[in-house]
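User: What would this chain look like folded?
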Amino acid sequence: MRRLLLLTLAVVAGLSLAGCPGFFGTNYLKALDPVSSPKATDYQGADGLAKLKTDLGSPAVVDQLVQSGEVGKIKDDLKTEYLNKPISPDPTVKAEQQDAAVLYADLSLKTTPAADTINNITALLQNSGSGIDTDKPLDVVKQILPDDVKKDKAAFAEMISGFVDANSAYEKLGQSITDSTDAPQGVDMNDVAEKAFVSVFVAAAQEAAVSASGGNQDAANDLLFSALVDQDPTAMEQLGSGMQAVSMQDSLDGVSGILGASDLSKLLPTSSGQGA
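Assistant: Here's the prediction, encoded as C-alpha cells.
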C-alpha cells in the first residue's frame, strides 16, 4: 500500500510539472547551463559599447574576458571602428568615439596588472601636495608599482603594455576635447584624468627604455625592470640617458584636453621639459 501511494504521488507530481509551460523547455534546465564566455562580437556597435561599459564594471566579467582570450580582438574592433578614424564633426559619432577611447583604455588597464596600480595612482595624486614634478617621470612610475608586479617580470611587462595601450586611447580622447564642453558625457573625468596622467608617464618611461635598448622591446622591459624595481645603477643611468630624448611636455600635451576637463590640471606646472 505504501509503495502504491508513493508511486501515485510521483505520477501526480510529474503530471503537474508537465502542465507548467517551459519546465521541460528552458525555465529550469537552462539555468543549469554554464555562463557563456564573452565574445568580441558581443561588443560591436553602439549597443556593444554600452555592454562593454557595464561588463568592465564587474570584476567577475573582467576575469571572464581575460580567460576568454578575446581581449585583443575587442581592442582591434574598437580601433578599427572608432579610434583609427579621424574625430568626427558629427556630435553623435564623436561621442561614440570618445566612449570607445575611454573603454579601450579601461579594457587595457583592467585586463592587465596595470589595474593593481589604480589605488596607488589615487594615493600618489592625493599626497602630491603642491603638485607633481613632471620632469621626473621615472620617480612617478616607481611610486605606483604594486608589490606583486615587483616580484614578477612577466607581470611587470604586461603592466607596462597595458599603460602604453591605454595611453594611445587617451591621446585620441585628448584630441577630441578642445574645452570642458567637449568632454564625454556621463564619464568621471577626474578618474579618466588620473589614469591618463599616469599612462603618459609610463609610456614616456617605456619610450626611453626602447630608445636606450636600440628598439628591442624585450630588452626595454628588462631595462625598465632593472632600473625601476632592482634599482640597478647601470640600468638607471641608461634609462636616464634615454629620457633625455623624451619630451614630457609633448607627452602631456597629448592628453591636455583630458587634464583640462578635470580637477587634475591644478597639480601640473605651467611648463615642462625633459628629464629623469
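Residues 1-34, 270-276 have pLDDT under 50 and may be disordered. If you want, I can go into more detail on any region.
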